[in-house]
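Design request, tokens follow.
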């Protein structure tokens, strides 16, 4: 979406359409392979073919689909705009421990994934994540809605 929406706005818009924000565990940037560094490639040399980032975009988000897609056929999963995800993940657990997800309704934070046009290209990696205030409204954060399979 081209406008800037707070995390709660994104959740409400998805709900209006009978969908929801994806959870962090559903984040599909790597296209089904946990080893892919960027959405569509693991090569630093090919990043410009798959992602809009600070150096190649002049700080402006661009229409979706101008870069190559990831293995699921999804465009701009790395770069262009970071995306809101439903749950705020407190921190990665220590090895052998269970992940703990906080209820986003009890926190002022939300998680964003994917990097944006204001990010260095390394921030567009599939495993990059950041917490931000759920009231944050910036053109560098957008969203996609997810649907449960029936």
């Amino acid at each position: 979406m081209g406008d800037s929406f707070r995390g709660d706005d994104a959740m409400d818009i998805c709900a209006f359409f009978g969908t929801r924000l994806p959870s962090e565990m559903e984040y599909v940037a790597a296209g089904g392979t946990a080893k892919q560094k960027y959405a569509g490639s693991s090569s630093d040399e090919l990043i410009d073919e798959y992602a809009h980032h600070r150096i190649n975009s002049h700080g402006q988000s661009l229409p979706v689909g101008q870069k190559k897609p990831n293995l699921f056929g999804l465009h701009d999963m790395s770069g262009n705009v970071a995306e809101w995800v439903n749950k705020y993940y407190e921190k990665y657990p220590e090895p052998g421990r269970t992940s703990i997800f906080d209820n986003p309704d009890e926190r002022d934070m939300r998680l964003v994934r994917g990097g944006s046009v204001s990010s260095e290209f390394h921030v567009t990696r599939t495993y990059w994540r950041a917490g931000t205030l759920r009231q944050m409204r910036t053109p560098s954060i957008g969203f996609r809605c997810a649907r449960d399979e029936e």
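Comment from the thread starter after seeing the answer: thanks! The longest strand covers residues 109-113.
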